[in-house]
């Protein structure tokens, strides 16, 4: 038939239990993301990132966890900052480090 055996038997068992109505299309259940950051936490992280622009995503996550007692991973902070264009590109960071190291050597 071209369908997996498991799917067939799930449909068949549903038919035996509830009749033809069990075979009708149903909307799929909404998937819930357990690790989604609530909106108010999201906003607090953005505010902290704007206030502490020199901190890395890891440092922001640690600072936020210490200050607000809400655990946020560095990966979540990074994705959040990237989504708001608050992360400098890697090339920019590398060039900035190169320039700073050159200036330190001169003076």
How is this fold's topology laid out?
Blueprint: H1 5-18, H2 39-51, H3 57-68, H4 74-83, H5 90-106
Class derived from helix and strand content: mainly alpha
Content of β-strand: under 5%
Unreliable segments (pLDDT under 50, ≥5 consecutive)?
Answer: none
The gross shape turns out to be elongated
Distance between the termini: 77 Å
Q: How many separate domains make up the residues?
A: 1
The total of beta strands comes to 0
Number of helices: 5
- Report the major sheet: none
Mean pLDDT level? 85
Helix content: 55-70%
Q: What are the secondary-structure elements, in order, as H or E?
A: HHHHH
Radius of gyration: 25 Å
Task: Please provide a written account of the structure.
This protein is mainly alpha-helical. The termini are far apart. It is built from 5 helices and no strands. The protein has one domain. It has helices at residues 5-18, 39-51, 57-68, 74-83, 90-106.
């Amino acid at each position: 038939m071209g369908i997996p055996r498991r799917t067939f038997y799930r449909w068949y068992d549903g038919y035996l239990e509830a009749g033809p109505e069990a075979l009708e299309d149903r909307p799929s259940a909404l998937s819930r993301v357990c690790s989604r950051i609530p909106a108010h936490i999201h906003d607090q992280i953005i505010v902290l990132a704007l206030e502490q622009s020199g901190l890395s995503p890891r440092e922001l996550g640690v600072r936020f966890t210490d200050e607000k007692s809400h655990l946020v991973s560095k990966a979540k902070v990074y994705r959040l900052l990237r989504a708001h264009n608050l992360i400098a590109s890697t090339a920019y960071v590398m060039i900035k480090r190169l320039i700073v190291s050159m200036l330190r050597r001169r003076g």
